[in-house]
């Protein structure tokens, strides 16, 4: 039988370990966030629906982003045991310079719409962490102001080629003069994807004050106070815009951009060139022939073509085919440090975070971005230790198995590059024989060379 006694104060004393309460609400909620999804939950509570949905949403049925995240869940790690992992190195060389982590902040549009500190918060946090920060053409802070916020760090400028070529290249020139070291050319946006959340929310720039937005703002007064009492929204690339996001994108983006134009852009830029939005092996090889410094496997976070290829699934083959000739980077669907480690193991040199960064920004401004980077950095180091590796160079495909979920029912009859539709005239029995051009001849014919559209003078 258990014998009981009255506890003595001396017995209770070691158990009484009260912590000093944190009075700062922001610090308290960010400290409680242990994962990127925790930051997402906080962000959703603190951000108006239209702005949050612009970050969270993707194209059409949002299948691409769901598949991308599922692909990272559908992996199996293969750790080694009895290794000395008392120290781990999470940095290495990316595009000719050292980074402290194998990830950086992706270019995001309309960032100050999510939280008023915007790109400046991201640039400051990236500078402290020793990782690259990429400014979008559709960013809401000027090229020069981002450079001032991160004067000694890695600044990348992301370019959308517009119909107005002179204006596009003027931005490139400004970025070069400001000292940005890398041009990130995004090539998967001939037109804007069908982002249905934005349409349903009536998301516009600047946000419209309707009855719905006012009601939605009531539990989020801090966001509206910040928005209404700070500098009016402006862009890295244009002064103002009044209308929907889709209208802006379709007005600006040029659907005629091709490989010849890309070669011309590359010739204008003095630094490194990375092409973002690569989604098949044939395009990756052609870009290597063009001499780019890196390619980013990406389906634009699922925000362009729904049901697009999953970048993480493309990674192993692309890395095998072209990884010896150019750096292979990856984005779309990354929500943890384990996702990043798996990407490096399968051949990526670098990864980029978009939504994860914005969740932190919306959850707590600059401090929230710091928390995002801290969470991912801790997860990267812990995953490496548990795998039994000390450095990124030790990671290899043997550490990861991609488990099958989406398996093609049959091999495709043609690659994406070959599947060019060919128009044929209806067959008429009474018609006289005519000389025709075969489909294969049409597909393999040499394109007509032409000068870049509205090209700015070469430097």
UniProtKB/TrEMBL annotation:
Cofactor(s), names only, from the UniProt record: FMN
Binding annotation for glyoxylate: 54, 160, 195, 300, 303
Coiled-coil stretches noted in the UniProt entry, renumbered to this chain: none
Catalytic residues identified in the record: 300
Origin: domain of life: Bacteria
Positions of FMN binding: 107-109, 136, 158, 186, 276, 298, 354-355
Keyword presence, RNA-binding: no
Domain spans labelled FMN hydroxy acid dehydrogenase: 28-405
InterPro entries attached to this UniProt entry: Aldolase_TIM (IPR013785), Alpha-hydoxy_acid_DH_FMN (IPR012133), FMN-dep_DH (IPR000262), FMN_HAD (IPR037396), FMN_hydac_DH_AS (IPR008259)
Keywords: Flavoprotein, FMN, Oxidoreductase
Catalytically driven reaction(s): (S)-lactate + A = pyruvate + AH2
GO terms, molecular function: FMN binding; oxidoreductase activity
Family, as annotated: Belongs to the FMN-dependent alpha-hydroxy acid dehydrogenase family.
Protein name: Putative L-lactate dehydrogenase
Species annotation: Cryobacterium gelidum
Taxonomic classification: Bacteria, Bacillati, Actinomycetota, Actinomycetes, Micrococcales
